[in-house]
Amino acid sequence: MRNPHILAHHERVADIGEKNSKKLLAQTGSNTGNLLFISAVRRIAKYRDYSSGYKFDPARIAEMHDGIVIPAANWVQASKDYGWLANLIEKSKLPCVLVGLGAQSLHADRIPKLTPGTLRFLQVVSERSTSISVRGEFTATVLEKFGVRNVRVTGCPSLMWWVNRPVSVQKVAKRISDVVMHSTRSDEAKSQSSNSRYRTSLYITQYAYKKKLDYVAQTELSDIVISRNNDLSGVAWDMIHMAYAEKDSDKVSAHIKKHIKCFFSVDEWVAFMTTKDFSFGTRLHGTIAALLAGKPAMLVTHDTRTREMARWAAIPCIDESEVLRKTEIDFQGIYDDLDFSEFNERQKSYYSEFCEFFDENEIDHNLCRSVTAS
Q1: What DSSP designation does 8 have?
Q2: Does this model's pTM top 0.90?
Q3: What distance in Å separates the CA atoms of residue 139 and residue 141, rounded to the nearest whole number?
């Protein structure tokens, strides 16, 4: 492919000041973490005439482009149905390549049940590509169970965001003070308090509140609304009071306005992370934003997606069960114990493997073969 259509949201949201928070978040796919892998794929793939978006005229795309590239997320799950997308791809008659596909399950022994539409989508893409890029071995196992075998484990393309070099973290011995946190929480999750992932997210939210730490929000709409202070009618106050274990709206609002950060471009997110000492939380892409900035980070793993990605990319991690057992988080102790030599070494081969994936699928790209050969 020399001129593919990128089937994704835009890699950054424009005119932020003119849009309310709900619309801004919707334009990222309701999770700002999506911007990292979308932006990475746009920077990696070469094209003559850039176009992106999920809604397209198959005939028009076929006339203007020679293929479709899809930066994917946790699409392999029971709640999704991508039959509509299978229809569009079939009608286009173009080759199609999936990059960074993940399967979502709380436990590795629970294969998610897929809708007929999603199964057909996977088969359609499988037939139109040399290989499908998946985030880890669990996802590869799930796809094989459903008869899709031309799979290559690559991890997530977000770690390739710099394009011209692998990610590297050089930790220095120091007393840390500026810690940023993040968790997997959203307004819609308030009924899932018995879910361990959500309990971990509440723990992190409340810990950041108690310690007055910055927190990067990715899906927490009400927190984002309050932090922007421009459309407060959209705030789910009951959820905010519960999430922060704080009944005083003025007190929690003051904290949110000072400490909650949300980014609608990867450049700004990575730049912010360069000002921090350490990142800690359950968000994969919140962790990766710190790593891209060259900053030490610890991922709190909570499901198959985060565990398989941490293993494949050698991202330092701790299981959520370890966090929930503690009343205090010893950030300094965790930081002091971190060793990024394995991560840095792994990123060299990680980069090389992604280069090979784009080559075997005949996608012209901007990755540096001189880096992979060194």
Answers
A1: S
A2: yes
A3: 5
